[in-house]
Design a protein that fits this description.
SAM-dependent_MTases_sf, methyltransferase, methyltransferase activity, Methyltransf_25, alpha/beta, 7-stranded mixed β-sheet, 247 residues, Rossmann fold
Length: 247
Amino acid sequence: MSDLTREDAFLTLYTDLAREGPGAAADLGWALSVAATPSAARICDAGCGSGADTVTLAKERPQAQIDAVDQIAHFVAAAQKRTAPFGARVQVYQEDMAALKGPYDLIWCAGALYFLGVTEGLTRWRTALAPGGAVAFSEPCLLSRPSEAARAFWAEYPQITDVAGIRARVAAAGYRVLGEQMQIGDAWEAYYIPMAKRIAKLRPEATGALSEALDEAEREIARWRAAPSEIAYALMVVAPDLPLPHE
């Protein structure tokens, strides 16, 4: 495996993993409830990865029409295979999540909105929402009085704020918060524990770019293990502010 590119090494690491980021099915169920997403909704999974949450959406809303989008062809193919049992009501596309068309009753985005920016992404998606629609997203969040270990974990994301800062970015896009909760512990274990097992499986024959990718992933897991009770995503359910009477 010494001839792999950096991108190929990344994809090799993530092959056969259930998730490409922290999360849990229960969190998605909570978000659907808070957003009051109807049974026959039109839903988008933006930045769907290999489709773990797309499957949960399809199960939670069995009458819904679901679109899932991702820019990485490898993940799109995996998500298409994973969602095939749901038939035509679940469609997976290789597209830019910045250019969603809709209209959607719910846009779900697990750990990927930071690529666009919270304010910027929500602003773009406003026209993709159906009347009464909502966005549910998870965003890196500093808890109160973070330790040095927690700050070190997020060192490569200098834009990170506490939850008040996330609320401010939501408000700047003209949205209001319908509900929020923290993803700590279990949601991260569901991501990192399988990854650690995948690293162990690949390690004996890893060289070159793959070995470097495994090293980088191990360092990330070690930083999480240094402060697991402090590493959090804020899961937010938000909706556009109602227009003023004269608008």
